[in-house]
Design a protein that fits this description.
By secondary structure, this protein is an alpha+beta fold. It has 8 helices and 13 strands. Helix 5 (156-201) packs antiparallel against helix 6 (205-217). The longest helix has 46 residues, at 156-201.
């Protein structure tokens, strides 16, 4: 779409026969375009900013994704294309107010509006603008800004037109997200089924277990330990980084020992600073080139209700 956003998409059949104002006509067309768009979140976001600029007949639009305390200009059209990829702090900005309140905001003269990031507005050539939330369920997940070069050009009517367009886009994006989540869940179930079959059929099931655990969790290392005749937990299989064999005595605390003895999963956010971490285990991992790893999970493996390994 060009800067002037004067080239409309195809009208819905019979729409020209309806007694509608031009901007309302455009809104209906834009909503239909978004409903009919392919199930691709990125493409829908780009279509949204293009349609927002076109419906409001302004000079540019941008979608800002929320990433922590920052906003990232991810999709844009018209004069705001120059901002794509830009990252700005949201604190103290008009966008921050929109995120906090969940309500759209109008700035009819950005030079006189203390809520506006004057540096960014000047850089992108913005004179007036509407900033509105794009919401998922009850949360604001992004901010859409539609802007004009001139001050005073953005009005409350623009705000009113933008909101139903954002609602349609939010609904479409939610459905795409749900579809993506379902596909991911289905794929995970298929992968787990494949893993189970291969482990059961393997000549060395412990080795297969390590390989699948590492693959499913995207972990650089997985190890299987079992008790020896003296009650030590010793390495019997592993995959990934070349980690030296481990021997964990029953009288010394360790995360893997806790998982084996309790029969419960031990999920550790930072095992290097955990009270039950064995210093020797940390040394072994460091020697294997895993000095940058911090989180881990120790999962007991049971048979007949009794732990046989971890």
């Amino acid at each position: 779409m060009n800067d002037d956003a004067k080239s409309p998409p195809e009208h819905a059949p019979g729409l020209d026969a309806l007694p509608l104002e031009e901007d309302v006509r455009r809104l209906i067309v834009a909503q239909q375009r978004i409903c009919d768009a392919p199930a691709d979140a990125g493409a829908i976001r780009q279509l949204l900013v293009e349609m927002a600029q076109w419906v409001l007949d302004l000079d540019g639009a941008v979608l800002e994704l929320i990433e922590g305390e920052d906003l990232v200009y991810s999709h844009a059209s018209g004069i705001l294309v120059a901002g794509i990829g830009m990252r700005v702090g949201r604190r103290g900005s008009l966008s921050a107010l929109v995120i906090a309140s969940g309500q759209p905001q109008l700035s009819d003269d950005v030079k006189k509006d203390t809520r506006v990031d004057a540096v960014t507005a000047r850089r992108l050539g913005i004179g007036s603008m509407i900033v509105a939330p794009l919401r998922h369920a009850h949360d604001t997940v992004a901010v859409v800004t539609v802007a004009a070069r001139e001050s005073g050009r953005c009005t409350e009517r623009h705000v009113a037109l933008l909101q139903p367009l954002l609602q349609i886009a939010a609904t479409r994006l939610e459905r795409v997200a749900m579809s993506d989540e379902q596909r991911a869940a289905d794929q995970l179930l298929m992968t787990i089924g494949e893993a189970s079959r291969e482990i059961l059929a393997a000549g060395e099931p412990a080795s297969q277990l390590c390989q699948w655990a590492s693959r499913l969790l995207d972990a650089p290392f997985a190890v299987f330990l079992q008790p020896d005749a003296d009650g030590n937990l010793v390495t019997t299989a592993q995959t990934g980084a070349p980690v030296a064999p481990m021997v964990l005595p029953p009288d010394k605390p360790s995360i893997m020992r806790s998982a084996f003895d309790s029969g419960r999963l031990q999920l550790i956010a930072d095992y290097r600073n955990h009270a039950d971490t064995s210093e020797r285990v940390v040394e072994i991992l460091d020697e294997a080139g895993l000095a940058d790893t911090h989180s881990g999970a120790a999962l007991p493996v049971t048979s007949g209700g009794k732990p046989i390994g971890v």
